[in-house]
Amino acid sequence: MENPLLLFPQLNISALKDKPYYKVMKSAIKEEPHKASKPGAKQKRNRLSLLLQKPEFHEGDHLGKPGNFTKAASVSPEEAVKWGESFDKLLSEKAGLDAFTKFLKTEFSEENIEFWIACEDYKKSKSAHELLPKAKIIFETFIQKDAPKEVNLDFHTKEVTSQSMGQPLHSTFDAAQSTVYQLMEQDSYPRFLRSAPYLSLLQPPARAPLRRRSRSFTGSDFQGVRPDLTVWG
């Protein structure tokens, strides 16, 4: 499997440091004990909704309610046009990443972009002893069966990732991250570009109509003006 870093070498990874993902994931896992009975899809959605209500998931979330990210985002039409050139360019911009995350929330699939960002952060780990606890949190949050924010992976990719958990490397989640990246690029990204909020970003801001100010005359306006004393018969 091709290293996903080769797929998007120009990403501004420093822009992805805003959210304390591992702290949030760890607390989410503790609050999600394994149940004897297999939870249904509706139960999982309800649990996910409760998790999303945590304030940590909304740090830096300055674009307003889902579906209305154009109202508060100060994005120029020129910048928005660049987002449509490629998925890489969209994710490389902080405002673009936020807008796309907002869009995924409206489709209840934000776990994909959260997993992708968590993998980017994981690969920036500077020492080997950081990898195991981080890998465990990512695996239990996004990959294992019935995980709180389980992403859609094929059996082979999930199995390969699971086997590498004993001694995780920086490349442990590369295959899974690449799969989720391609899923978003081929499925969610085209719908994002067709969405009304994104299309509205391409429109230049409407200018308020100019108001003509009425002039108030004063006595000084008539200084030097001789009155017409003609007597009309």
- Please describe the biggest sheet, giving its number of strands, its sense, and whether it closes into a barrel: none
N-to-C CA distance: 105 Å
Number of helices: 12
Name the CATH superfamily assignment of the domain at 77-202: Regulator of G-protein Signalling 4, domain 2
CATH topology-level name of the domain at 77-202: Regulator of G-protein Signalling 4, domain 2
What is the H/E string?
Answer: HHHHHHHHHHHH
Low confidence ranges: 1-20, 31-39, 44-67
Q: Supply the CATH architecture of the domain at 77-202.
A: Orthogonal Bundle
CATH class of the domain at 77-202: Mainly Alpha
Q: Which structural class do the helices and strands define?
A: mainly alpha
Q: Tally the beta strands.
A: 0
Percentage beta strand:
under 5%
- Which percent bin holds the helix content? 40-55%
Q: What's the overall geometry?
A: elongated
Average pLDDT works out at 75
- The gyration radius over C-alpha positions equals 27 Å
GO biological process, one term: negative regulation of signal transduction
Keywords: Signal transduction inhibitor
Pfam family, one: RGS
InterPro entries: RGS, RGS_sf, RGS_subdom1/3, RGS_subdomain_2
Description of the molecule:
- By secondary structure, the chain is mainly α.
- It has a domain at 77-202: Orthogonal Bundle (Regulator of G-protein Signalling 4, domain 2).
- The protein has twelve helices and no strands.
- The longest helix is centred in the last third of the chain and has 21 residues, at 174-194.
- The model is unreliable at 1-20, 31-39 and 44-67 (pLDDT under 50).
